[in-house]
Amino acid sequence: xxxxxxxxxSIKVNTKDSQVNGDIIVGGxxxxxxxxTVVQDNSIKYNVDREDNSFLETIAPIIIEKxxxxxxxxxxxxxxxxxxxxxxxxxxxxxxxxxxxxxxGFLFIIVYKHHSNTQCKKCNREFAYEEIGNPxxxxxxxxxxxxxxxxxxxxxxxxxxxxxxxxxxxxIDSKPDSDKRD
Length: 182
Ligand SMILES: [Zn+2]
Hints:
By secondary structure, this protein is of the alpha+beta class. Helices cover 50% and strands 21% of the residues. Strands 1-2-3-4 form a four-stranded antiparallel sheet, with helices on one face. A hairpin with a 5-residue loop joins strand 2 (129-141) and strand 3. Helix 5 runs antiparallel to helix 6 (92-118). The radius of gyration is 22 Å and the shape is flat. The N and C termini lie close together (7 Å). Residues 120, 122-123, 125, 128, 157, 159-160, 162 line the site of zinc ion (ZN).
């Protein structure tokens, strides 16, 4: 992971250094252009692993087939609410029931989400999208010292070939090296 980061960019991973470098390299008379270049230089791109959804890919079709999509959502919500309520009552017996209800609730919500994410927008087939290519991460330092990380993944419908590109954004509060990806 770290090697990929280095080969992909001539810019140092340490973002505070690269900001200084950016100013020196450009040194232009137009301050607007200098600023834009600094932002460009500070971004880091690297490849990340594809998602491992093998567990969901196995169980989601079985659960959706058995209950139907809306029931899966209903059981998920009901499981989480009743799980939390059970945990609020001080009883060791209810604790375990609440614990199991919560797990079942979250599992059904995840299955529901997986079904929605993999249903093709074009041909409407279920469990159709599969991840293709090399997902890429881009990290851009923000003005308040945080790092905005965007991961771009591409999915392709295995039935009609529709391609769908999705970005997920998150803000991390330290240098890329401390990110616990690897
Ligand atoms: Zn399709």
